[in-house]
Amino acid sequence: MGNVVDELIERVYQYALDSRDGEVAGYIPELAAVPPDSFGICIATVDGHVYERGDTRTPLTIQSISKPFTYALALADRGRAAVADKIDVEPSGEPFNEISLDPTTEHPRNPMINAGAITSASLVAGADPAERFERIRAAYSAYAGRELTLNEDVYQSEARTGHRNRAIGYMLRSFDIITDDVDDVLDLYFRQCSIDVTCRDLSLMAATLANNGTNPRTGVEAAEPALVEHVLSVMATCGMYDEAGAWLTEVGMPAKSGVGGGIIAVLPGQVGIAVYSPRLDEHGNSVRGVHSCYELSRNLELHFLHVTRASRSSIRAKYALAESQSRMWRSDEERALLQDVGTRAIVYELHGDLLFAGAEIAVREMANDARGDTSNDENADSGNPDSANPDLGSTDKRPAVEVMIIDVRRVDDMSSVASKMLAAERAHLLSRGVSVALVDPEGILSPALSDTDDTTGTDKTSNDVERGDVQTFADLDTALQWGEDALISRHGDTSRPHDIELNDHPLIAKLSDDQREALTSALEIVQFPNGDAISVSGSKSAGLHLVLSGRVASTLTDNRGVEHNIITLTAGSTFGELPLLLDVPWVNDFHAHTDVTAAVLTPDAFSEIRRSHPEVEMALLRNLAARTHAQLTQAVQAAKHAGAGPLRT
Ligand code: GLN
């Protein structure tokens, strides 16, 4: 028993099964011999699952469904310009076997009617006819994901009777569209039409087109994505001959039919559909095939112009550093300053698949924020934003944002135009003096930003920021620290030294004179050079550390090998109480992130002082409790942001 998709297909299958209308193709004698009421439907997904109902493994000749695939091969062999010199891409509204050329260009009107298809075959490269056919057969096989073979009987039958195609061939020769031997070209065309496929093969060939040219089961690239887009465009407008307009309106998928009774339809990025049923309508399209495609499109909402909803906001959450601080230990003054100016640094959390519309929302929001503009509808004040008096009743005027952190961890995919837009916007922001960083552990956007030469149109001397140097962080916390540092260096008192004296360390400053004396004399001042491992997880206590200068980072490396920052400690902070007080091993690594000076109370010195001054242990515990409280408060704050729902802008 299958799933609900099988049931949907079953319903369509039963619906179309009733029809006995139409006749099998009679003009190729061998085709008239097939069982007329065979019927199969396949849907192949772009991840390679094939739903099958009915006669999906019965061989049929590919016939005109071969045309887009040979056209793709001709494009790959000769290039688009050379092919366009011979074959137009205009819907003809004529039957597939019309003996006609466009009166103005004197070219076949498109590659989906026989005149264009025979021309495509003539453009396939190869030393001799045998090699050309082998290249065609191999190309179709790559789309299908298995080796396809020629149906000798159908080929012989069409070669004997294909006088109309001969007429078309000679017409093409007389207009110098075909320059090679016409009979060789016609023979190649008859052979390509007589390759055996099944309904299942056809659905995978269609799914390969839906999957940008790569067979979803074998992973083999049958055609380049750019060519696939070109071929699908022509299938959309010309694939169903004189039924193309109604087809596009009702079914809304690029498609191709063949007089063997097959039809393929392609929904780019989603599915390839194939239907097989040999009775044909007056256009030469399978009657049940057409019915099935109409029903599948309607029931499964497959019309490629069906707009389900407007593009969702690409900004999942947006918040200021004032609301969500890093886990960096900061002095009270720094915390106060960050509260004060923290609205000037913003985190933009982007998500989903970023195409033009999603990137547009993001860059518009960022540009507005850099101006300190709250209305995100620029049209409202499109006159001259600079002339607006900021003090005049504009209660919603905010300070311009100076620091931006773009978090792309939840972005699934980004189109090249989206990454170019973000790269160009970043360059604009930098030239306005905004500091910009990324949280991008997978490198989804950072490579585009480093490649600023051809992505930005802004002038290169406008700022002193190293353009190639993209601030990229693997985790949000490190980026938040960077953002806070940027705000502190812009707004803080940078003349104040970051180092502290031992007696000014908050832990010491809180002690009584007596206790302070006892503790300081037990402490050892230790220098840790940049990069030094101060403690390693699992190891025994190395004592209590009071940081006097520099930065100490505590990190963990996740299962994918990405390093995450747990906390960064600066002068005035302490660490190592827990292993010391509880006699347990360290649970994380601490290393010197800069040159570090710390005062260290070794376990031995601690046992000593515990005996002589029990109150010191109490003071340490109180300090630990206070820090735990501060961290918990921050964690609660951060969790509130993590829960922030999608933000409509
Ligand atoms: N071999 C067939 C022909 O050229 C293909 C036509 C078709 O499938 N529409 O007549």
Task: Please give a structural write-up.
Helices cover 40% and strands 16% of the residues. With 649 residues, it is α+β, with helices and mostly antiparallel strands. Strands 2-1-7-6-5 form a 5-stranded antiparallel beta sheet. Helix 2 packs across helix 4, helix 2 packs across helix 10 and helix 13 packs across helix 17. It starts with a helix and ends in a 7-residue tail after the last helix. The C terminus is likely disordered. Bound molecules: glutamine. The site of glutamine (GLN) has 11 residues, from loops.
Give the arrangement of secondary structure elements.
Blueprint: H1 4-17, E1 40-45, E2 50-54, E3 60-61, H2 66-78, H3 80-84, H4 114-123, H5 129-144, H6 152-161, H7 163-174, H8 182-193, E4 196-197, H9 199-210, H10 225-238, H11 244-250, E5 255-257, E6 262-267, E7 271-276, H12 287-300, E8 315-320, H13 332-341, E9 345-354, H14 356-371, E10 403-414, H15 416-431, E11 435-439, H16 446-450, E12 471-473, H17 476-491, H18 506-509, H19 513-522, E13 524-528, E14 533-535, E15 544-549, E16 552-557, E17 563-569, E18 574-575, H20 577-582, E19 589-592, E20 596-601, H21 603-612, H22 614-642
Parallel strand pairs: 9-10, 10-11, 11-12
Antiparallel strand pairs: 1-2, 1-7, 3-4, 5-6, 6-7, 8-9, 13-20, 14-19, 15-18, 15-20, 16-17, 16-19
Bound molecules: glutamine (GLN).
Glutamine binds next to loops.
